[in-house]
Amino acid sequence: MTLLPDHHTIDDLLAKARTRNRYAAYDMATAENRLRARQAARHRPPRQRTSDTALTRTEWTPPDNERTPDADRAWWDLNAVCLLAIGPDADRHLGGFITSQYADKAGALVFACLLHLADDSSGARFWWRFAAGAGHQVAEYCLFLEHAHSGEYHDADYWRTQLVRRHFEPAILFGDRSTVPVLCPPCMEQIHSHITHRHHSEIGTIPLPQAALVTQLRTLTSPL
């Protein structure tokens, strides 16, 4: 066996393996403050989130735009879609969701949007995925917006592709963005008492609506 003329220590090899610091000039403190502010905003009740831009925006985030949507804009559009979803006929859809043993995609969308507005993001994602898997385009749009807001751009691009393939245009379905309510109904936190949680060995904890939530939903939507 022929030995190499020079012998490198493990420290030498590790030094060569290190990648160059591409963020030497990055303002880490500013970035951390921005992330903390966004995280705090996300965990406040949605009715407490106010923004001049949210009140004046007239256009929805278009899924056919290849640019990554702004996280805050994606959040406001998602909140608005959820408020639309719990409008007229939402109680009927939710009732159908319960009587069908949680197999109705329209009711799954309504329930997911309720969970989102009540700050249960993981539960909302679960039922959005269920509805999207059944072909509900609004659920796909919700997932696109939610992943974009969370900075999960690979997942956002996946749902963007599905929406573009279906020629989804939010303005045609939802109308003018500025006419959508931006504040949640005042009793949103009360829905938690009408939700049970079932544990699944493979999926994890799944939120499920009780029948009383249908009546509660009528109260929530009455001011809209």
Order of helices and strands: HHHHHHHHHHEEH
Task: Name the overall outline.
Answer: globular
Q: What's the total count of β strands?
A: 2
Q: Given the structure, what is the number of helices?
A: 11
Distance between the termini: 82 Å
Overall average pLDDT: 80
Integer count of domains = 1
| Rg (C-alpha, Å) | 22 Å
Give a concise summary.
With 224 residues, the protein is mainly alpha-helical. It has one domain (10-221). It is built from eleven helices and two strands, in the order H-H-H-H-H-H-H-H-H-H-E-E-H.
What this model shows, in words?
With 224 residues, the chain is mostly helical. The protein has one domain (10-221). The chain is 54% helix and 5% strand. It has helices spanning 10-17, 28-42, 52-56, 71-85, 90-99, 105-117, 121-133, 137-149, 153-165, 170-174, 212-221, and strands at 195-200, 204-209. It has a two-stranded antiparallel sheet. α5 packs antiparallel against α11. It is globular, with a radius of gyration of 22 Å. The model is unreliable at 41-55 (pLDDT under 50).
Annotate the secondary structure layout.
Elements: H1 10-17, H2 28-42, H3 52-56, H4 71-85, H5 90-99, H6 105-117, H7 121-133, H8 137-149, H9 153-165, H10 170-174, E1 195-200, E2 204-209, H11 212-221
Antiparallel strand pairs: 1-2
Helix pairs in contact: 4-6, 4-8, 5-6, 5-11, 6-7, 7-8, 8-9
Descriptive labels:
two-stranded antiparallel ribbon, 11 helices, mainly alpha, 224 residues, 5% strand
